[in-house]
Predict the structure.
Amino acid sequence: MTEKPLSTVAASGSPASGAGAAPAPGAPLLQVEDLEVVLSTGSVTGRVIDGVSFGVGAGRTTGLIGESGSGKTMSAMSIVRLLPDGAETSGRIVWRSQNLLDAPRRRIREVRGREIGVIFQDPLAALNPIQPIGKQVGEILRRGGMARQDVHARVLELLGRAGIPDPEQRVDVYPHELSGGLRQRVMIAMALAGEPQLIIADEPTTALDVTTQARILRLLADLRHQEGLAMLLVSHDLRVMAHVADEVVVMYAGRVAERGPAREVLERPRHPYTRALANNVPAVSTKTAIAEPLQGAPANPFDRPSGCAFHPRCPLAVERCRTEKPELREVEPGRFSACHRATEVAP
Amino acid sequence: MTSSDPVLEIRDLRVAFHGPRRSLRGGRTITQAVDGVSLDIQPQEILALVGESGSGKSTVARCVLGLVQPQEGTITYEGRALGPIDKRPAELQRAVQMVFQDPGSSLNPRMTVGSIIREAWKVHPAVAPSGERREAMRELLAAVGLDEGVAARRPTALSGGQRQRVSIARALALRPRLLVCDEAVSALDVSVQSQILRLLVELQRTRELSILFITHDLAVVRQIADRVAVMRKGELVESTTAEQLFTNPTHRYTQGLLRAAYDLEGAVEVTFEEAREQIS
């Protein structure tokens, strides 16, 4: 299972400096430190991401878990600067010893797609509907400077690596002619085209059937094991996280609630919010009663409750939770929780 | 009619859709979306209809609602034929109601919650006479766990869970006997999903509803369903009690589905293909 603690904590040296050199497995590849994003929509302004820190180790998978409005997607997209207009970011995003938040736009374009691949939730929206899939994959290669005569063979190879059967037959089809699962594989082929070291996958299986989900997850796990790809996986699905991620970061209202090795966090939570999420996942192997639901709806990051943002829904909340914001602290080796009562959270 | 007679009977349902023309002279492709499905729903029963996308489960639901006309087969409600929605007598229109997957797109954003619900009563005035509507509204919103004040708000001002409560209230406004829920909790946040499932189960008991619950989430099915029907490529492959289906599935396809499903804890997933290979 998880043989290393969370990479941000172990961070001492900088990641490998050479462009081609892969860092040792587990060494920090990406570090997000104290990220803040301030967003204005119409009349309201809010710090929708409020001091988020996490890391991804080389060849490892970090999962960002959260419900709608938790800021999980925005935290991930900050890395490749895919944010709504007018978003202001601060903090540090360290990628190959460089803070991407200060990097020029030109450098970000280089990182995005080549060093860091991105897979979006809805491939139908992300793919060009009037271009054959092979051409779309090939365009990334050509823009990357590949000689024209080499592109076709490489496209076929990428489609094959993404698990698309008979790439020769499919290279000229349009996105709408493919099933949801195959479309997602085209997205994965495009993400792989730049030979990235890290893939950011935003809800890659949410729009898919259960049986297709398992296939895509298996593909992502294979890519990780065979090619040493690191992954930042964004999902609200705890079952997916438990089986794919090494470390998880649980977010609530734009803050980190809890962080640590995936299985440990999900099976033995140290934050009441994580516990509620885990208890709300029904089982297939045994008949379970419908869980005692949390009251209310997820907090609005534009209008965050005082103190601990989770306190209005928390069964353990005391006066201190209403007034004092809990800091993320190490509650046992490798386990971090932002809860005043972390030691009292029982499964 | 005795109480053990089914509320809804579906017999040999067949629905085909025409695909696009492949060329100017070519014929259209025909997709047999539903291919000879028969199902019963008993009074006060939750019947889950499960399957992958393209299995035809939502098409069956649309036929029950009268939104799609089958080429063959019959659907009867308490022994009376259910035709297209605009040809149904008022009491049959009322008797079968629907809760959609995404309340964000199924509720009119320009209308207040109150007017969305009152609209149903305009079409069926006998359900709530005009003098009693204020009280009926209060009762209805309370039944789905909403404050009376929500009536004056628009769906866009509500959370996802509140919106799904509104769409349940709208469905209940006409005092249906059968509720069709198409992926009614799939789009909700995990912490809200349990709230809505509890509400549906409670309403099913207190209002003596039958529920046709369409989903791809087997874990949710295990929690709430009395019986389960599994569809694949337009056909029913297995239909039995929930207990039987989860402990002793007989069809190979169902066995594969169950093997490929995984829980938060325990064994790592097997892919669907692997599961089916192991079974055979």
In short: The mean pLDDT of chain B is 89. Residues 251-280 of chain B form one domain. Chain B has two domains: 8-104+176-248, 251-280.
